[in-house]
Amino acid sequence: MSKLNILITRPEPENTLSCERATEQGFHGVSLPMLEIVPISEANKVAAIRSQIFNIDEFQYVIFVSKNAARAAAQWLDDCWPMLPVNTHWIGIGKGTTETLRAENIPAITNPGHTTEALLEWLKPVKMRHQKVLIVRGEGGRPELGEQLEKRGAHVQYLSLYERKKPVYHAQTFALLPDIHLIWATSGESLINLNSYIEQFKPSFKSLLLLTPSERVNTLAKTMGWHNAICANGADDASLITATELHTGQQNDRD
Fold first, then answer.
1. Mapped to the 3 state alphabet, what secondary structure does the chain carry?
2. pLDDT tens digits, one per residue of 39-78
3. Taking the complete model, does pTM exceed 0.85, yes or no?
């Protein structure tokens, strides 16, 4: 059987790595990022970030929502803290984010699962009342985590280190794609961007198998008309590859 062409839509640099991982597993990853990660550069915002980083020892919990948040924060922490504060709990949402933090020598722990919802479930036994929590993310991130922690009595602040932007593509980009058999959409925002381009340039893709990272994103996909959307129960490569093998029957058919 010929290799499956998987359209992979992560932001870079993850997208290139995911394409390589898919290829190693016997598939063919086709890179088409649906988000661009752009560091915040406005002078007043950079000054505010620096101030928050210098005061990070005031927080009992620092929660990183993504690998991008982890990488960006690590650079700031390296510049501002020769030694990290010792009384802070560093938490990554999902295994990949936590591994990124540990690679940067930030002693992070993670929750079981890969989502904000899983983190909230995991934090139930923790006494969050009166705890100061810093959520590290991109501008305009989902508010649910902070809102739920505040309901538990935590004092929440946000540290936004980057912007997420929609990449610019034209009809030719989609015309030149190889035959695509399956799509990985790893976040709600990337799915929204993908959907807008597909409806404009390649509506036939709506009939393809679409793997999503969570039930929330899967429900969103189905409301958009992706009737073959399936939840992979994780945004990491391992979860997506396992789901790809399961739903295509190709785990034993690799070249």
1. CCCCEEEECCCCCHHHHHHHHHHHCCCEEEECCCCEEEECCCHHHHHHHHHHHHCHHHCCEEEECCHHHHHHHHHHHHHHCCCCCCCCEEEECCHHHHHHHHHCCCCCEECCCCCHHHHHHHCCCCCCCCCEEEEEEECCCCCHHHHHHHHCCCEEEEEEEEEEECCCCCHHHHHCCCCCCEEECCCHHHHHHHHHHHHHHCHHHHHCEEEECCHHHHHHHHHCCCCCEEECCCCCHHHHHHHHHHHHCCCCCCC
2. 999 999 999 999 999 999 999 999 999 889 999 999 999 9
3. no
